[in-house]
C-alpha cells in the first residue's frame, strides 16, 4: 500500500492554491488520477517520486517511509523504487535507444536490456537516436527506460498526449501487458476519460487541490443509460460478452454507458452515435470515410 498524506502550496496564473490530499493506492492496482488542468495531479506524482518536496505530511511505501516532515526524512528519487514516464518523454537526444536504456542501469545487465527492447518492439531501432523515432516509439522507449531499474511503482504522466488514436490504443494494450507481466503498481494521470476507462481499476478525481471523489472505475463512471439527451457522440472503450449477450461500454461526456449490440464488427476506439431511449440505448457507427 502506498500512502500519500501531503500538503503543498502551489502558485499559478490563477493565484495560490493549497494541495491537501490523503491518498491510498493498493499494491498491484492500476490507479488513475483525473481532474482539470492545474488541479495538482502532476504535483502529486512528482512528490511521490521525490522530485518535489511537500510542505508537510508523509509518504509511505508499505512500512517504508519515503517522506516525513516531522522527522525530516526525505528519500532521494534514486532510493525510491519508482519508474517515471514524463509527458515530454525526457529522453537524451544525443544518445541512441540502446544508450538511453544503459545509462540508467545501476548494474550492467545486457540480458535485461535486450528483454526490454524486445518487449517494447524497439530491437530494430536500438542504434537510432530519439529524433528518428515516431511519437509512439519515443513513448515505448520512455516506458522501457522507466522499467530498467526494476521499479515496483510505475508512474505515467499524460503518456498518450502526443500520439495518434491507433498508436494510443496499441500502447494502452502494451502498458496493460507490462503492468501485469511485472506485477507493477501503476499510477496514471490523464485528461482523457477513455484512457482511464480502458486501463485503470481505481479512479481519484482532484479539484482545487482536494480529492473530490474516488472509487472503483466501473462504479465511478457507470451510468445505466438514463439521460435527458436523446442523441450524442461517444467512443467504444470496451467490448465483452455477458450472459451470452454482446455488449459495448461507450463513453459519452462524463458517462460510461453499457449498450447491448448485435453487430460484432464494432471495434474498441470506434466513434459512434449513441441514441438513448430510457433503458434501451443503441449505437450506430459514424462513417469516417
Automatic annotation (TrEMBL):
One Pfam family of this chain: ABC_tran
InterPro entries from the UniProt entry: AAA+_ATPase (IPR003593), ABC_SmlMolc_Importer (IPR050093), ABC_transporter-like_ATP-bd (IPR003439), ABC_transporter-like_CS (IPR017871), P-loop_NTPase (IPR027417)
Lineage top rank: taxon: Bacteria
Residue intervals of the ABC transporter domain: 1-233
UniProt-recorded Gene Ontology molecular function terms: ATP binding; ATP hydrolysis activity
Assigned keywords, A-Z: ATP-binding, Nucleotide-binding, Transport
Gene3D superfamilies in the cross-refs: P-loop containing nucleotide triphosphate hydrolases (3.40.50.300)
Lineage: Bacteria, Pseudomonadati, Bacteroidota, Cytophagia, Cytophagales
Name of the protein described by the UniProt record: GTPase
Amino acid at each position: 500500500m502506498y500512502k500519500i498524506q501531503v500538503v503543498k502550496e502551489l502558485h499559478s496564473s490563477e493565484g495560490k492554491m493549497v494541495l491537501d490530499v490523503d491518498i491510498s493506492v493498493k499494491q498491484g492496482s492500476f490507479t488513475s488520477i483525473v481532474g482539470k488542468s492545474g488541479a495538482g495531479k502532476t504535483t502529486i506524482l512528482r512528490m511521490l517520486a521525490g522530485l518535489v518536496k511537500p510542505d508537510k505530511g508523509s509518504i509511505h511505501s508499505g512500512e517504508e517511509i519515503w517522506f516525513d516532515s516531522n522527522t525530516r526524512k526525505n528519500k532521494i528519487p534514486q532510493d525510491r523504487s519508482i519508474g517515471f514516464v514524463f509527458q515530454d518523454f525526457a529522453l537524451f537526444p544525443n544518445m541512441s535507444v540502446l544508450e538511453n536504456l544503459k545509462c540508467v542501469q545501476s548494474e550492467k545487465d545486457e540480458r535485461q536490456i535486450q528483454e526490454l527492447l524486445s518487449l517494447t518492439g524497439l530491437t530494430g531501432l536500438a542504434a537510432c537516436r530519439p529524433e528518428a523515432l515516431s511519437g509512439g516509439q519515443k513513448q515505448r522507449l520512455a516506458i522501457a527506460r522507466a522499467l530498467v531499474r526494476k521499479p515496483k511503482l510505475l508512474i505515467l504522466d499524460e503518456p498518450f498526449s502526443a500520439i495518434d488514436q491507433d498508436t494510443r490504443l496499441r500502447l494502452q494494450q502494451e502498458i496493460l501487458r507490462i503492468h501485469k507481466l511485472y506485477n507493477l503498481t501503476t499510477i496514471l494521470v490523464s485528461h482523457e476519460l477513455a484512457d482511464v476507462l480502458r486501463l485503470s481499476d481505481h479512479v481519484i478525481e482532484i479539484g482545487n487541490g482536494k480529492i473530490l471523489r474516488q472509487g472503483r472505475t466501473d462504479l465511478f463512471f457507470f451510468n445505466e443509460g438514463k439521460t435527458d439527451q436523446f442523441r450524442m457522440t461517444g467512443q467504444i472503450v470496451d467490448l465483452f460478452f455477458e450472459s451470452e449477450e454482446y455488449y459495448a461500454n461507450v463513453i459519452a461526456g462524463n458517462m460510461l454507458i453499457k449498450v447491448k449490440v448485435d453487430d460484432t464488427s464494432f471495434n474498441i476506439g470506434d466513434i459512434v452515435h449513441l441514441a438513448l431511449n430510457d433503458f434501451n440505448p443503441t449505437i450506430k457507427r459514424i462513417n469516417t470515410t
